[in-house]
Design a protein that fits this description.
single chain, 5 domains, two-stranded parallel ribbon, 65% helix, RNaseH-like_sf, Zinc finger MYM-type protein 1-like
């Protein structure tokens, strides 16, 4: 194994590793042939942690698996690409943006192709310049040099952006990113720990679940988006079309207020992503809809729960419980000590240390958390010898990698360094130095 040889060459004993973190690539995280599986074959105590940054990216991606949401995001991506692909069109756009008063913010950013949580800047720029984009597209239609296929594409862009459904989905996507993006930024810190990630996940699940269950808030969001769309001269919201096979069964609806209420109900359900099947008009005629709006906020919360309920995280939770839970079951303690045989003390010694730790917490009003234990061990060095097993437990918990951001930054720095050396010495001399080394 190349990894093992590299570690041994650095005088790092392979058996001393207790954590490994990768992204979701199959060759790294595969349960049978992935690198993490091969490492654990030789060192079972090297727990594998899925990078939280990549995991959060997949959570956002999972929540967007809806036809309307996917279509809206793809339309936005295509429009931005269309404008920026032509220097002429892009120059016209920047002049229009300056005329609209956005002198310092005339940039329209493309969507990040892989990192969903990094798309907030692109969505913000699109919504900021929504009117300007429409004006630029309409100006492009008057360009006599525009080819027929591009003219048809531009006309389709205009029709799509003028639809309320497109604007509503982009605003919904923006709201989701506004919630998830700060967490993604925090998890890229150098000193982020598994404990930090766990608290952020719990907070994020509560927030997403609350929004997904709040129909009153969803109705307010709909009215807010509707008012904003009206100012942008976007078309009024409409009910989805009736399937062609059922058009003969559908009756006309004459009550404008009822139609408005049904439209609001539809978009409220799109926003909170409760599965939606039918609407009934005043004549009780059932209208079956082809559209089945999947979940956004509630599905994001569900995806987050599922991804952080994996069996791989059980030992991580046992480490945390041994520090924070005075009533931890003896069977769980036995499982933890058996797994970390050689790292943790005997059952009797470990029980005594836990009792001493919790007693200290009660006496000095210290939080029974891993952070509280870290503060005590950092400020009182004598406690490390007295609570040696608890100190080892804390180290095992904090050594687990939460993200791979720092590793990715290291590779980026190496690439920049290599580029600099190549530009200064040339590839031939650089290759010669590598051979000598």
């Amino acid at each position: 194994m190349v990894l093992k040889e590299a570690l041994v060459s650095l005088n790092l004993p392979f058996g001393n590793f207790r954590g490994q973190g990768y992204d979701g690539a199959a060759n790294m995280s595969g349960c049978e042939h992935g690198l993490q599986a091969k490492v654990r074959e030789e060192n079972p105590r090297a727990l594998w942690m899925y990078c939280f940054g990549h995991d959060l990216n997949l959570v956002v991606q999972d929540s967007m698996k809806d036809r309307d949401m996917e279509n809206a995001i793809q339309k936005m991506h295509s429009v931005i690409t269309f404008i920026k692909a032509s220097p002429k069109r892009y120059e016209v756009f920047k002049k229009m943006a300056a005329q609209e008063g956005h002198y310092d913010r005339h940039e329209i950013r493309p969507l990040c192709p892989t990192r969903w949580v990094m798309r907030l800047a692109s969505v913000d720029s699109m919504l900021l310049h929504y009117t300007t984009v429409l004006m630029q597209l309409e100006t492009a239609l008057d360009d006599r040099e525009l080819k027929p296929d591009k003219r048809a594409e531009t006309q389709a862009f205009v029709r799509s952006l003028e639809e309320f459904n497109t604007y509503f989905c982009i605003r919904t996507f923006q709201k989701l990113l506004l919630i998830t993006n700060p967490i993604h930024v925090m998890c890229q810190a150098k000193r982020v720990t598994v404990g930090n990630v766990r608290s952020w996940v719990q907070s994020l699940i509560a927030t997403l679940s609350g929004i997904g269950a709040d129909e009153v808030g969803a109705a307010f969001f709909y009215q807010e988006v509707k008012a904003a769309a009206h100012k942008l001269w976007i078309d009024e919201p409409k009910l989805p079309g009736v399937p062609r096979a059922r058009r003969g069964d559908a009756a006309d609806v004459d009550d404008a207020d009822e139609i408005s209420n049904r439209i609001e109900e539809l978009y409220v359900k799109i926003f909170i992503k409760i599965r939606y099947y039918e609407l009934c008009n005043s004549k009780q005629v059932s209208i079956k809809l082809q559209h089945c709006f999947c979940k956004v906020f509630s599905s994001a919360a569900t995806s987050l729960i599922l991804r952080y309920s994996r069996q791989d995280l059980r030992m991580t939770e046992l480490l945390r419980h041994s520090i924070e839970d005075p009533d931890m079951a003896e069977a769980e303690l036995t499982e933890l000590i058996t797994f970390y045989d050689g790292d943790l003390p005997s059952m009797e010694q470990f029980k005594w240390e836990r009792q001493a730790w919790y007693g200290r917490c009660d006496e000095q009003v210290i939080e029974k958390t891993w952070e509280g234990l870290r503060k005590v061990l950092s400020s009182e060095h004598g406690m490390r010898g007295m609570l040696k097993g608890m100190h080892t437990t804390l180290v095992l918990y904090l050594v687990l990698p939460a993200t791979t951001c720092e590793a990715e930054r290291s590779f980026s720095m190496l690439r920049w360094l290599l580029t600099y050396i190549r530009s200064m010495q040339g590839q031939e001399k650089l290759s010669g130095l590598a051979i000598l080394n």
